Amino acid sequence: MSIIIDQVLTPDAPHPTDPQRNVAGQFVKGSSASPGRRKRSEEQAILTAIDAACPPEELQKLLGEAITWAREYKSPKAVMAIAQFVVGYRIGTPVQRSISASGKLENLLSRLGEMDEDEFSVLEAEMRRG
């Protein structure tokens, strides 16, 4: 019993199952929740393994076959997937932006969607008047 009390009184004591967390499950000072980026040497080892499994010549051949197949089967989805892959690796993918709506905005949009045409016309006229 006194061990448990001691651990509660010393919250920076390591958690029994995770040395980076205290008894309350919080991260102790100096530890990070994120493992961070891989070391450059690890990344290089992965790239070397990928190159060994699929050298550039083989990748070029596979891309050519994929393009031929996509055209042969007239698959716009396949053509777009290949184009996105190639462009993504040649010039990078565009920045993805997302807009999150608050609850009030979601409610307003929901209400606008439920309005009939007459209600919407009245609201629009009021908004135009300022």
The main sheet orders its strands as: 1-2
Can you count the helices? Answer: 6
Class by alpha and beta content: mainly alpha
Taking pLDDT < 50 over at least 5 consecutive residues as the criterion, the unreliable ranges are 4-9
The topology string of helices and strands comes to HEEHHHHH
Mean pLDDT: 79
Largest sheet: 2 strands, antiparallel
What does this entry look like structurally?
- The protein is mainly alpha-helical and 130 residues long.
- Among the domains are: 1-31, no CATH class; 55-92, no CATH class.
- Helix content is 61%, strand content 5%.
- The chain contains 6 helices and 2 strands, in the order αββααααα.
- Strands 1-2 form a two-stranded antiparallel ribbon.
- Strand 1 (14-15) and strand 2 (18-22) form a beta hairpin.
- Helix 3 (56-72) runs antiparallel to helix 4 (76-90).
- The longest helix has 17 residues, at 56-72.
- It is flat, with a radius of gyration of 29 Å.
- Mean pLDDT is 79; it is low at 4-9.
